[in-house]
Amino acid sequence: MIIVSVREQMLHHRRPSGVWHAYPVSTSANGTGNQRDSFQTPLGRHRIFSKIGEGLPMRTAFIGRRPVGIYIPGAEDAYRDWILTRILWLDGLETGRNRRGKVDTRSRYIYIHGTHDEDSIGRPVSHGCIRMRNTDILELFSHCREGERVLIRD
After folding, report:
1. Run of H or E residues at 140
2. Quick one: pLDDT at residue 78?
3. Sign of CA dihedral 91, 71, 58, 23
4. Which of 38, 47, 106, 135 has the fewest Cβ atoms surrounding its Cβ within 10 A?
5. In the chain, what is the straight-line distance between the N-terminal and C-terminal CA atoms, in Å?
6. Parallel, antiparallel, or unpaired: how do β-strands 149-153 and 60-63 relate?
7. For residue 139, what are the contacts with CB-CB under 8 A and spacing of at least 6?
8. pLDDT < 70 positions in the chain
9. Rounded to 10 degrees, what is the CA torsion of 127, 105, 12, 65?
10. Which long-range contacts link 76-79 to residues 24+ away (Cβ below 8 Å)?
11. What is the pLDDT of residue 80?
């Protein structure tokens, strides 16, 4: 089970052993909301739809969920919202809230992912996704599974 607290800017993961691990995150600069094109972090019950990036090097950059190379600080556009290292693609479980229609988390391409802007972790600055430090997403990725439940709450 993964719990994301928007208020605390923290992600908590309960491993199969029962031990909880906590990681700082960055959620949306626009707050929370489930509407398409809102650039907000969606609330509610979700699951990990897909794990992307297994075995790739740290700081692998993704465009359209496909690896396109290694992010090089200073050589890349720092203003772009880079998706790095690993992707946990989320799927809403609550019809009318975060599933189907204009509130569908999966079709909004909401992920938990690594970022090039690790200094901003702990503050809400993303475009809707849940950003993590690259070492943290590597660790989380190795300990979670597709189908695992994710709760995003204020």
Report:
1. helix 134-143
2. 67
3. negative
4. 135
5. 17
6. unpaired
7. 21, 23
8. 78
9. -70
10. 76/116, 78/116, 78/117
11. 80
CB atoms within 10 A of CB 51: 17
Beta bridge partners of 20: 14
Q: Please tell me the distance from the alpha carbon of residue 115 to that of residue 68, in angstroms, as a whole number.
A: 15
Enclosing H/E stretch for 137: helix 134-143
Per residue in 68-107, pLDDT tens?
Answer: 999 988 777 767 889 999 999 999 999 999 999 999 999 9
Residue 136: exposure state from Cβ atoms within 10 A (0-12, 13-18, ≥19): buried
**Cα–Cα nearest to 73, from 62, 57, 88, 84:** 84
In single-letter form, the type of residue at position 45 comes to R
User: Which residue is it, tokens 């029962």?
Assistant: 18
Q: Report the C-alpha gap between 136 and 109 in whole angstroms.
A: 21
Residue boundaries of the structural domains of the chain: 2-153
Give the architecture-level CATH label for domain 2-153: Beta Barrel (2.40)
How many whole angstroms from its chain centre is CA 81? 12
Identify the H or E element spanning 2.
strand 2-5
